[in-house]
Amino acid sequence: MSDRIWLKITTVCAQVGFVISTLANFVILTLLVVRPAKALGSYKYLMIIFCIFSLFYTSVETFLRPLIHMYDNTLFVIQQKRFQYSDLTARFISG
Predict the structure, then answer these.
(1) What three-state secondary structure class fits 67?
(2) How many domains does the chain have?
(3) Is the pTM of this model over 0.85?
């Protein structure tokens, strides 16, 4: 399989994953906030925080579009720019 096809597949899968993750987390957040569930107790707040962090990291991953390559003991993280910003900004965002 060529590199261009593989990049297209990963881009489409990332977009589908973003939509599914965002919808699922908003549904869960809505249910947790709107419906009072006494059976959940303080676990409800943990689930709310988990959903918020999941939405944040999904947004960051969609914004950065990272390509991760592992070879032996080496890990490469390559960022595909969506917008035109400086190299310093790209390094800061990747970090």
Answers:
(1) strand
(2) 2
(3) no
